[in-house]
Amino acid sequence: MFWTSYLLAVLALILAWPVPVLLSRAQWPARSPFTAMVLWQAIALAGGLSMIGAMLVYGLEPIGDNLIAGLRSLAGMVFNNEPTTALGFWHLFALSAAALLTAHLVFTLLLTYYKIERQRRRHRELLALLASPSDDGPGTVVINHESPVAYCLPGGARSVTVLSDGLMAALDPAELRAVLIHENAHLSQRHDLLLWAFAAWRQALPWFPTTRLAQTAVNSLIEMLADDVALRTESKGTLIKAIAIVASGSSQPAVSAAALKGGGAVVEGSGVSATGGADSPRTTASRVSRLLSPQPPLTKGLRVLVLAASAMLLAVPTALLIVPGLLG
Amino acid sequence: MASLGELERAVMDLLWAGQEAATANTLRDLLAQDSEAGDGTAGHQGKDLAVTTVLTVLSRLEKKGLVERERGTRPHRYQAVSSRADHTAELMHEVLGSAPDREAVLARFIGSVSESEAATLRKLLGYN
């Protein structure tokens, strides 16, 4: 029981720091973004599980030979007022920390969902009044703005893809099609769920390298996945040109947006982000270089290996927590 | 029957176009005119549009923070809280800005680009 908590703590540590750092520097994720995405999810889940598990197992050590027996004794103390003398200060501390961390993670996940949904609802309400339907099919609207902007606002059946006048003017039909396919890929592959989970993960533990690195990597990987979908039907040149036009247009200070109809409105700031935030400025560059000098995807063997490693990451802490109880 | 969403849009268009606050009656008349004169898309049920329906639409818009009611006058007069351009700017600020949780709210085709990166891309395109 004691060694279990040490093993889980070691796993939590390496998943919180060295593993994500190495993965974020690796070149192969650009070659097989889907595989890399699975690995990042496994790292996050296994990291959280082993963090909580290590504290839980350590805290329950004096009152049970395994997790299940320990939890049973703990329930007896909590609900039946059985004596707690077996638990020392550090055991109680670890148990409280495990409970707090679990509650914190769940609460942050829900709070992030609520905040995202509120912002999306407000955005959709304004779009319903300001944007006009486009010829490019249902769920696509055009907004009167001169910068070339394209984005999608996920929301189940109410998902909407927004294009600006500036974008429609700057792109030819094939390039526009590439942009639309790219945005629809975000919606149909439910990238919003990944963005939500990893935004919450970072919000919950902002000082852990793993949460920041994971969010940056996931933001970049979903763009690559969507690019790959666009490449199935559109040519590489078309997609690169669309990216280049939109990127070079959006870097110009948006102050010129004063030319908006009605005047009086200035979009503050510009598309340029010096800080980079979670949306690393390198994302666009790595997307373009990936398209310009494509590397072959990982071999099947390597992909299976990474997927197996991801499965192991989840299986090991789960087994460490549960198996001793089943055997004992 | 036009949906409430379409009516909200038509009412906002009128308030944004008009210079001063309008009562629900005025708005109803304007909506009816639109439907007679125009292509019929803005308020095609204009004639049988009830003032209460317009009031419902206005209170929905008020709840969304888009219109405000002048207190003290009877009947109430309504006006847009800010101009169409301001609202567009608000949206674009949300899209182009770098608020920390923006990435999770919406997915942009191109995220923020650094100036040097943009220069490289322009070169790639054969500009300057």
TrEMBL record, chain A:
Its cofactor is Zn(2+). Signal peptide: none annotated. Binds 1 zinc ion per subunit. InterPro entries: Beta-lactam_resp_regulator, Peptidase_M48. GO terms for biological process: proteolysis. The keyword Protease applies. Residues 121-198 form the Peptidase M48 domain. The keyword Cytoplasm does not apply. It holds the Pfam family Peptidase_M48. One of its GO terms (molecular function) is peptidase activity. Keywords: Hydrolase, Membrane, Metal-binding, Metalloprotease, Protease, Transmembrane, Transmembrane helix, Zinc. It comes from the Bacteria. The chain crosses the membrane at residues 6-26, 38-60, 89-114, 304-327. Belongs to the peptidase M48 family. This is Zn-dependent protease with chaperone function.
Automatic annotation (TrEMBL), chain B:
Keywords: DNA-binding, Transcription, Transcription regulation. The keyword Transcription applies. Pfam families: Penicillinase_R (PF03965). Belongs to the BlaI transcriptional regulatory family. This is BlaI/MecI/CopY family transcriptional regulator.
